[in-house]
Design goal:
The chain is of the alpha/beta class and 517 residues long. It is 36% helix and 21% strand. The strands form six sheets. Strands 8-9-16-17-18-19-20-23 form an eight-stranded parallel β-barrel, surrounded by seven helices. Strands 1-7-5-6-4-2-3 form a seven-stranded mixed β-sheet, covered by helices on one side. A two-stranded antiparallel ribbon has the order 10-11. The longest helix is centred in the last third of the chain and has 18 residues, at 340-357. The radius of gyration is 24 Å and the shape is elongated. 50% of the residues are buried. The model is unreliable at 1-17 (pLDDT under 50).
Length: 517
């Protein structure tokens, strides 16, 4: 059986012509002569810098790695070579000859990505046959992201770990965790225990679409990550060269926090954790003590998440409560502000300064431009490309995450049998066609585009398997957008390579969308 599988894999490569079925498509693939055959007695040798690559090959090929700097004459060898002629530490080469497979990473991440490529060339899950080839590869963008909304529906920790694996398999390197929203607060903050004590549980959830609700389900829904859970997720991600970016929403999408600490709000109304979807008016006030509260939260968040970027939300902030609140009006006067949107800008700048002082970088959704933020802030452009273009022209770094190409809560086919989704229509081919650097930018401005990110907003994805259905294969198309040089993209070719991913998803029990081709 194993041999048959291997023969099929080699035959499949041959049937697809010259190129190996690798996703995202590598920068360059040159076929060689002959076929490598794994034989008993061969070694998987990894050097000190390639430990993570070794681990992924052990698990993915059912082998035992040997830590050694020595070069085996035959087998698989993984090394890190800082002198490798590729532009980043994430780059690698993979040489397959009839006797030896050699993976060289410019850095440990490159070795890891070379290993991921090899796993795609041996998709049966066993060391097997591979046609001779030379691959040279490195990413187009440094931010190749996936956002998981853990607030609308709690994603249990094992599901988060699986999504980290699924992202890393396709060479994605950022997983943003949307940890707080109106419907739930999902991260333990020791100084403010009611955030999870009250804010992590809602009493029920709307049934049906927000625009045509069919009542409530009457079932409490909740959950949160302890600080120990976060430590485990951070470590897991680090071993896979994924940076976890936490997102703490402010000043909007704050109702779960306001249910826990009403004094952070603008009205005397008693709030509960929100049980419906959509934008609601309950936002944080911008009193000094609220700013200090938010900075306390960020202090613990920075202790938990060692990465550079901290996301502070900033999207969808109705200004009505600040307009109506005498305290907010007095605060504006005290700060010399004339418009409520400037209060939003004031809050965001305070957070940016705080994070910058601590050696981090603030990210926010594109609304942060409206209140005015410093150039240090990174802008995530979701309402089309417009915010990203404006921001890049102003010298901000940007991540392109427009609804039109990266919102995986949209329908993926027109079939009436698709499960209820938020709306919209985003088929696989449209995702694949995304170009993250808008033509409006000059080459210099275009350098501010760090990359792109797919969004899994979970209002209509109650469980992880449903999220898998919405993400795969669309996220895979986005992975190729984020990694592969634009000139190497080809949708028909991508579709031919997809079955190799599907084979691996099947083995991992991933509920991918089967008819997206
Ligand atoms: C967003 O979709 N509100 C960022």
């Amino acid at each position: 059986m194993r041999t048959l599988f291997s023969i099929l894999a080699v035959a499949a490569c041959a049937a697809w012509g010259q190129e190996a079925a690798v996703i995202p498509r590598p920068v360059s693939v040159t076929s060689g002569t002959g076929v490598f055959h794994w034989k008993p007695g061969m070694k998987l040798a990894v050097d000190a810098g390639s430990a993570q690559a070794g681990r992924v090959l052990e698990a993915g090929l059912n082998l035992k790695a040997e830590a050694t700097a020595a070069k085996p004459a035959a087998g698989i060898r993984v090394t890190v070579d800082p002198a490798l002629a590729v532009p980043s530490g994430e780059g690698y080469t993979l040489d397959v000859t009839p006797s030896l497979i050699s993976i060289r990473g410019k850095g440990p991440a490159g070795a890891f990505y070379g290993a991921q490529t090899l796993l795609q060339l041996m998709p049966s899950g066993q060391a097997s046959e591979v046609r001779a080839v030379r691959i040279k590869d490195y990413p187009r963008f440094v931010w190749r992201g996936l956002m998981l909304d853990t607030a609308r529906h709690f994603l249990p920790k094992p599901a988060v770990l699986k999504f980290i694996d699924l992202a890393a398999m396709q060479k994605m390197n950022v997983v943003q965790l949307h940890l707080t929203d109106d419907q739930g607060w999902r991260i333990e903050i020791r100084k403010y225990p009611l955030l999870t004590g009250v804010g992590s549980m809602r009493k029920q959830t709307l049934i049906g679409h927000e625009e045509k609700p069919k009542g409530f389900d009457g079932k409490p829904h909740g959950g949160f990550y302890s600080q120990a859970d976060i430590a485990e997720m951070v470590q897991y991600a680090r071993e896979r060269f994924v940076e976890l970016v936490p997102e703490i929403e402010m000043p909007g999408h704050a109702q779960a926090a306001l249910a826990a600490y009403p004094e952070l709000g603008n009205t005397s109304q008693k709030l509960e954790v929100f049980t419906q979807w959509g934008v609601n008016p309950n936002v944080f006030n911008v009193e000094e003590r609220t700013i200090l509260f938010l900075q306390d939260v960020l202090t613990e968040v920075m202790q938990m998440f060692p990465g550079k970027f901290i996301h502070v939300g900033g999207d969808e902030v109705p200004l009505d409560q600040w307009k109506a609140s005498p305290a907010a009006q007095a605060r504006m006067k005290q700060l010399g502000l004339t418009k409520e949107v400037q209060l939003h800008g004031y809050l965001m700048r305070r957070m940016d300064q705080f994070l910058t002082q601590h050696g981090r970088r603030m990210v926010g959704w594109d609304e942060i431009l409206e209140g005015g933020v410093d150039q240090s802030a990174t802008v995530m452009s979701w309402r089309g490309n417009k915010g990203g273009i404006e921001a890049a022209k102003m010298g901000h770094d940007v991540v392109m995450a427009p609804t039109t190409h990266t919102y995986f809560d949209y329908y993926q086919t027109k079939s009436p049998s698709e499960p209820l989704a938020i709306g919209g229509f985003l088929p696989l081919e449209t995702v694949y066609g995304f170009e993250p650097v808008p033509p409006e930018l000059t080459a210099e401005q275009g350098k501010h585009v760090l990359g792109t990110q797919g969004q899994a907003w979970s209002e209509y994805m109650p469980v992880a398997s449903h999220m898998e259905y919405m993400l795969f294969p669309r996220l895979t198309a986005l992975a190729e957008v984020a990694w592969t040089p634009a000139a190497r993209k080809n949708y028909a070719d991508f579709q031919k390579r997809l079955p190799v991913m599907e084979q691996r998803w099947k083995a991992m029990g991933v509920n991918y969308h089967p008819s997206q081709k």
